[in-house]
Amino acid sequence: MRIVILVFLFLFFVGCKQDKSELLNKNHSEKKEIDNALKSQFIVDLEVIVSNDEVFEMFYQDYDNHKYTWKTKIKKKIKGSDKLQTIRFKMPETYFPKSLRFDFGDNPETKYIKFVSLKMTYEDLNITINPAEFGAFFVSNSYVTYNKNTGEITTKKIKGKYDPYFDSKPVFKQRLKIEAR
């Protein structure tokens, strides 16, 4: 009888040890997935409708630079379409911006641009900006007319030049400063 009890106890403890190691392995792989999801990379998804082929650019300032330069520019080519497109800008890892600027194209023939949303993620930060908020957080230059109710963007040439963009307003810079990681 003792032998049966000893065998039972042996199997019980060995079985529990295996379950514990499986649980530890499972927890380790889940932690790895969470760590990957919370990567320290600032990502901006710009949702727009653009009628013509275009080039959009996102400039950023971080705490090491105080001007927008070609070194702090991310460029994306866009195929014209009447369907919603998501343009993804990925900043270098561990960079958190203090200001953003969006250049809405270099093609003066573009007939239609519609801003739908701007989504920003960094680690556990998730911010979504709608057309009205975009108008509150960003200011357009003289090459752009923006309708914050519809999200429609009209661009124009001035004296033969074409450089439509939106730059961060102080209120948006303050929001980024508060959210900085």
Please write the CATH class name of the largest domain: Mainly Beta
* Number of domain units: 2
- Roughly how much helix do the residues carry, as a percent range? 25-40%
Let me know the average pLDDT. 85
Radius of gyration, in Å, reads: 25 Å
Summarize the entry for a quick read.
This protein is of the alpha+beta class. It has helices spanning 2-37, 131-137, 170-179, and strands at 43-50, 54-61, 73-78, 85-90, 99-104, 113-122, 125-129, 138-140, 144-146, 152-155, 165-168.
Task: Explain what you see.
- With 181 residues, this protein is an alpha+beta fold.
- The chain folds into two domains: 1-37; 43-179, Sandwich (Lipoxygenase-1), CATH 2.60.60.
- It has three helices and eleven strands.
- Strands 1, 4, 6, 7, 9 and 10 form a six-stranded antiparallel sheet that branches.
- The radius of gyration is 25 Å and the shape is globular.
- The termini are far apart.
Characteristics:
181 residues, alpha+beta, Lipoxygenase-1
Task: Give the helix/strand layout.
Elements lengths: L1 H36 L5 E8 L3 E8 L11 E6 L6 E6 L8 E6 L8 E10 L2 E5 L1 H7 E3 L3 E3 L5 E4 L9 E4 L1 H10 L2
Antiparallel strand pairs: 1-4, 1-6, 2-3, 2-5, 5-11, 6-7, 6-10, 8-11, 9-10
